[in-house]
Amino acid sequence: MTEDKYLEMARFAKALSHPIRLQILDVLSKSACCYTGDITEELPIARSTLSQHFKELKEAGLIQGEYNPPKIKYCLQSHNWEKARKLFQNFFEVPPADSCC
């Protein structure tokens, strides 16, 4: 794997490293798109905290948002979602080296 692929995987992994962000992705994966208000009803966190998590996911390229006043509609960014899935799948399919212990 190239250094660029490792950097990309690290960016995705960082975005996936919080339970709330995983819940957000789970909600979005089960619907075409979702408005922020809909997600705040499902997740028991403050809207400002949720906004920070959306920002992390968006910066990693896993979701995209569209501003429709007064709400923001979020969806999975399907191209990057598929890219992340393949990167991690390939990474975990490599058999581990023989144990040294």
Tell me about this structure:
- With 101 residues, the chain is an alpha+beta fold.
- It has a single domain, classed as Winged helix-like DNA-binding domain superfamily/Winged helix DNA-binding domain (Arc Repressor Mutant, subunit A, Orthogonal Bundle), CATH 1.10.10.10.
- It has five helices and three strands; from the N terminus they run H-H-E-H-H-E-E-H.
- Strands 1-3-2 form a three-stranded antiparallel sheet.
- Strand 2 and strand 3 form a beta hairpin.
- The two termini are 27 Å apart.
- The mean pLDDT is 90.
Descriptive key words:
101 residues, alpha+beta, Arc Repressor Mutant, subunit A, three-stranded antiparallel sheet, 59% helix
Map the helices and strands:
Layout: H1 3-15, H2 19-29, E1 34-35, H3 36-42, H4 47-59, E2 63-68, E3 71-76, H5 78-93
Biggest sheet statistics: 3 strands, antiparallel
Give a count of the beta strands, DSSP E runs of length 2 or more: 3
Shape descriptor: elongated
Helix content: 55-70%
User: Rg from C-alpha positions?
Assistant: 16 Å
Structural class: alpha+beta
Which residue ranges are poorly predicted, with pLDDT under 50 across at least 5 consecutive positions?
A: none
Q: At the third CATH level, what is the topology name?
A: Arc Repressor Mutant, subunit A
Number of domains: 1
- Quickly count the helices: 5
Strand order of the largest sheet: 1-3-2
CATH superfamily: Winged helix-like DNA-binding domain superfamily/Winged helix DNA-binding domain
Distance between the termini: 27 Å
- Give the quaternary arrangement of the chains: single chain
Into which percentage range does the β-strand content fall? 5-15%
